[in-house]
Design goal:
elongated, 18% strand, 7 helices, four-stranded antiparallel β-sheet, alpha+beta, Dipeptide-binding Protein, domain 1, two-stranded antiparallel ribbon, 195 residues, 6 strands
């Protein structure tokens, strides 16, 4: 191979590399819709955290549509999610959660402590009896602060309230009461989560 051939091949390789790199930068961002496939038939009750059955599969859907005050996160037993912070009183009788400022549901409505209270009171899943037996009352301190007052110290409170043991995901209070009850999911879905 002569020197001129090598230079020509190097030139062609350079032009092709530059064209390829330019093509990478010219790609457009994602558009359209995402399709999310499941290996099972999705039951309507899986969309509502208050009525989700005690099975693991529905919780994947809940994690995509809703969020919680606190939940297990990588590297943490329990991490803040919607809550900016949470504390337990020294006597173990009260848990206080402070919501992150500026939280919004998918539709733009603000998330408040009233929504947390509403979601808790509405929950009727598998862990509802245990939660009701141990939580004396729920106090809305201000729009971003909610307190759970317990009957007695209950070391498992965060296990029940902050994990998939219960439906602790939050919905807008008016999503159901404002929509007149029946058909609320079709009329006014307000939720958190990536989808």
């Amino acid at each position: 191979m002569t020197r001129h051939h090598r230079i020509a091949l190097l030139f062609i390789a350079t032009v092709l590399t530059v064209a390829w790199v330019h093509g990478l930068g010219a790609q457009t961002g994602p558009t359209g819709e995402m399709v999310w496939a499941w290996h099972v038939t999705i039951a309507p009750s899986w969309f509502d955290p208050a009525e989700t059955p005690p099975q693991i599969t529905p919780f994947g859907l809940l994690y995509a549509l809703h969020d919680a005050l606190a939940r297990p996160l990588p590297g943490e037993k329990m991490g803040n999610s919607l809550a900016e912070s949470w504390t337990e009183s020294p006597d173990g009788l009260m848990y206080e959660f402070k919501l992150r400022p500026g939280l919004r549901f998918h539709n733009g409505d603000p998330c408040t402590a009233e929504d947390v209270k509403y979601s808790f009171e509405r929950y009727k899943g598998t862990g509802a009896k245990e939660l009701r037996d141990n939580v004396q009352r729920l106090e809305v301190v201000d729009p971003l602060t909610v307190r759970f007052h317990l009957q007695e110290p209950w070391p498992d409170f965060m296990t029940f309230y902050g994990t998939t043991a219960t439906g602790r995901w939050h919905r807008r209070a008016q999503a159901i009461s404002g929509a007149g009850g029946g058909g609320w999911l079709q009329k006014a879905s307000r939720r958190f989560g990536p989808l």
